[in-house]
Amino acid sequence: MRDPSDQLQCSFCGKSQRQVRKLIAGPGVYICDECIELCNEIIDEEFSGP
Fold this sequence. Notes:
Layout: E1 23-26, E2 29-32, H1 33-48
């Protein structure tokens, strides 16, 4: 039988827990370190302005 943790995946990009360094759980959702990094870049760009 498969370990249920093998089936966890990022709710944003769909990568599995084994494909990323960190998977953070929220209420019914997960986000990986790669998506968090992308979100941080988007926020930084918005606040840096033209």
